[in-house]
Write a structure and sequence with these properties.
Elements (H helix, E strand, L loop, with lengths): L1 E6 L6 H13 L4 E4 L10 H11 L2 E2 L3 H8 L3 H19 L4 E6 L2 E6 L16 H5 L14 E4 L6 E5 L2 E5 L12 E8 L10 E7 L3 H9 L6 H10 L9
Parallel strand pairs: 1-2, 2-3, 5-6, 6-8
Antiparallel strand pairs: 1-9, 4-5, 7-8, 9-10
Helix pairs in contact: 2-4, 3-4, 6-7
GO molecular function: phosphatase activity
Family: Belongs to the metallophosphoesterase superfamily. YfcE family.
Protein name: Protein phosphatase
């Protein structure tokens, strides 16, 4: 059986990313896919992009990757200056989704939704909103059997109508509990033949004090809000619903 570690939403938090990469290595998982939002919020955008490129076989685009590469603001400019032109070019050219068969199931991986990186779906969202994650794409024209996504920073696995939707949670900015999370899928990679398939969520403690210190040692915009999220797992002072 093949195992793939799926990480997402690093947001420039290097202590968290290193802790997750170490955990993946101790499990002897060789293949890592990343579902975007590499930079922003945290202070180490450039190093986060470099570590992801070094360790991940596949990377898809998140909404923050889009913002970093395509938009301008005072907050974004701070991170863009750290990233430099070559990294921003890499982020601009990332695909929106990836798809492959595993143990006879069509798997799609994306940041928020295969057809829309800004479509936000929670476990509590209406069924019709969750079903959008499974919609056919232009490339294959088929509904997926399994969709993995990030974006909401809250890990879960949702099985219904013979389909599976899972959220990896966030490596660097978790908003459910104050530990990093990532997903593992296990099956026969690139096989259309039915076989055993498993999805699981892993929680990883990391050095939050170090992550806070690294933010405090900079003049990064919005660092107080970021630090509060790391401490509490609460999004900008209010819980997501």
């Amino acid at each position: 059986m093949d195992r793939i570690a799926i990480i997402s939403d690093i947001h420039g938090n290097i202590p968290a990313l290193k802790a997750v990469l170490t955990d993946i290595k101790t499990r002897n998982i060789k293949r890592i896919f990343c579902l975007g939002d590499l930079a922003g919020k945290g202070p180490s955008s450039a190093e986060a992009v470099d570590l992801v490129r070094e360790n991940c076989e596949l990377v898809v685009k998140g909404n923050w990757d889009f913002f970093m590469a395509e938009q301008k603001s005072e907050m974004l400019l701070w991170h863009q200056n750290k990233l430099g032109k070559e990294r921003l070019k890499f982020m601009r050219e990332l695909p929106v989704y990836a798809e492959f068969y595993m143990s006879g199931k069509l798997i799609r991986l994306c940041h928020a939704c295969p057809n829309d990186i800004f479509h936000r779906t929670h476990l509590s969202s209406d069924k019709k909103d969750r079903l959008r994650l499974l919609e056919a794409t232009k490339s294959l024209g088929e509904e997926s059997d399994v969709v993995g996504y990030g974006d909401i920073h809250s890990a879960h696995i949702d099985n219904f109508d013979g389909k599976t939707i899972f959220n990896t949670g966030s490596v660097g900015n978790p908003l459910d509990i104050t530990q990093s999370s990532y997903a593992i899928i296990e099956g026969v990679y690139k096989s259309k033949e039915p076989a055993t398939f498993t999805t699981s969520i892993v929680r990883v403690p990391y050095d939050i004090k170090l992550a806070i210190k690294q933010a405090m040692d900079t003049d990064m915009p919005d660092k107080e809000a970021y630090i509060n999220e790391l401490k509490t797992g609460i999004y900008r002072g209010r819980r997501k619903v």
